[in-house]
Write a sequence for this structure.
């Protein structure tokens, strides 16, 4: 069984097709999906997703298990509400449906929000994670230097996290591994332009997970299409080739890591 640890299931590109997307995921061997929030309204929508499996007279039969996160993406940081830390803590209770905080982080490539605001919003997530014990789901693009410092500070305070859509930056990987964090691999590893193969090979077996980042980042050979959890086996197989392992070995390790990291049933 595979677990897609990062998919934006509430995105409009899934729309009315979400039941079919989830049925397709189950048919592809994906037994669980962590739905990722991009702002607090999205977090509320994400938290309602698990109820859909039991609705409509069992229409969710064959779907993967669903969990979610609560957080504010760096693109949305400028519009983050005051008292964000308190609002994140409130959304993490009662435990169960919300298994992590994020997607949060730093994005200096697009700079859709001022960098100082991105950092303040990220710090609010770190504080909320410290209080709740939930792990962080972290986005980093063109901000590896600042993010390395954040990982070391947060890790030193006992906060756990995962670097989602890891692109192969060695310095950031070193910081994550030293602080007990994980990294998560996407369809990026299937792209001919991917330059992080060496980093992928040196990640310990117990320190990485798989994700689609749907509806974005569709893997080869599905480039140009809407990404979805059913495409996760392509990523598994590419990682297996890079690490000189079997797909079964990758699947077994990453599923165990996801269960442990998020505290999912079966851990």
């Amino acid at each position: 069984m595979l677990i897609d640890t990062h998919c934006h299931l509430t995105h409009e590109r899934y729309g009315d097709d979400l039941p079919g997307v989830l049925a397709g995921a189950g048919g592809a061997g994906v037994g669980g999906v962590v739905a990722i929030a991009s702002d607090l309204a999205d977090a509320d929508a994400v938290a309602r997703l698990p109820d859909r499996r039991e609705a409509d007279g069992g229409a969710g039969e064959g779907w993967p298990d669903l969990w979610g996160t609560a957080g504010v993406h760096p693109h949305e940081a400028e519009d983050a509400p005051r008292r964000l830390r308190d609002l994140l803590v409130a959304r993490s209770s009662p435990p169960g449906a919300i298994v992590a905080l994020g997607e949060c982080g730093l994005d200096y490539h697009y700079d859709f929000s001022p960098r100082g605001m991105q950092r303040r919003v990220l710090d609010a997530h770190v504080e909320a994670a410290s209080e709740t014990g939930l792990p962080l789901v972290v986005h980093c693009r063109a901000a590896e230097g600042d993010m390395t410092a954040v990982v070391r500070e947060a890790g030193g305070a006992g906060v756990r996290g995962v670097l989602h859509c890891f692109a192969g930056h060695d310095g950031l990987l070193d910081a994550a591994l030293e602080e007990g964090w994980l990294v998560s691999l996407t369809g990026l590893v299937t792209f001919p332009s991917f330059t992080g193969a060496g980093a992928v090979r040196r990640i310990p077996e117990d320190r990485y997970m798989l994700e689609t980042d749907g509806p974005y980042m569709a893997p080869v050979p599905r480039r140009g299409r809407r990404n979805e959890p059913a495409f996760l086996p392509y990523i598994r197989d590419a990682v297996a080739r890079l690490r000189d392992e079997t797909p079964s070995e990758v699947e077994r390790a990453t599923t165990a890591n996801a269960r442990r990291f998020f505290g999912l049933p079966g851990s």
Notes: The CA atoms of residues 166 and 220 lie 17 Å apart.
